[in-house]
Amino acid sequence: MNPYLEILIRAVGAFVGVIFLTRMVGKSQVGGLTITDWVNGIVVGSIAAGLVTGIGRPASYYAFGLLLFLIFTVTAQWAGLKYRPLHKILSDEPTVVVHNGKILEKNMRRMRYTMDDLTSQLRQRSAFNIADVEFAIAEPNGALSVLLKSQAAPLAPRDINIPTRYRGVPSELVVDGVIIEQNLKQNKLDGDWLLGELQKQGVQSLQEVFYASLDSDGKLYIDKKRDDLDYVQDITDKPPGKMPS
């Protein structure tokens, strides 16, 4: 068989097979990518690795395989725009996993989507109580879109016509006991000012500070390496152990 024809057959089989496997694995494994992107990440990476390490075969074989996957990807994207059913096969569809505070177990089982997946992604959307969730939708790229119930949604200042001030991104001033000199200069401050502010909050040495930042209102946030906490909430199901310091 002609080697290029063999590569073509292998590439078609790999492209279709990896898409099938990805659909079988479920959305939680896609990790923020569409199925086509994930396929390309896996297969193109493997081909590129073969191009580097496959000394026994001509480099042109691997280059031809990469070209084929580029053509497959562009063709699949074009076909998905033209034919909606094909787009749904390649990219999947959104799936409702929480409706009016109720978990839809059938939809979760169909996606191989676990409670750990759900609660983890809800926490990332600042939804710590499932009862407060109106809708949670697993998107085709593996992300979770969350709509809180109106009673639980935070009240925005515009809802009650309250004017607000500008709020910028805080500047990191100390990271793991090391001063970020450039950020101090950008805020027209110096090390003496920082050390003085740290002392006001009972910090005697930079080595005590894990992280410190300055917000746009001029307030200094400090986190010490040693946290003086009597109790740390454990959200795992492990047996009680030593409290982290």
TrEMBL record:
Q: Name one GO cellular component term.
A: plasma membrane
- Gene3D superfamilies, from UniProt? bsu07140 like domains
- The YetF C-terminal domain covers which part of the protein? 82-214
Topology within the bilayer: Multi-pass membrane protein
- The portions of this protein that span the membrane are 7-26, 38-55, 61-81
Keyword annotations for this protein, in alphabetical order, are: Cell membrane, Membrane, Transmembrane, Transmembrane helix
Say if the entry is tagged with keyword Membrane. yes
Localization per Swiss-Prot or TrEMBL? Cell membrane
Family to which this protein belongs:
Belongs to the UPF0702 family.
Protein name in the entry: YetF C-terminal domain-containing protein
Which species is this record about?
Pelotomaculum propionicicum
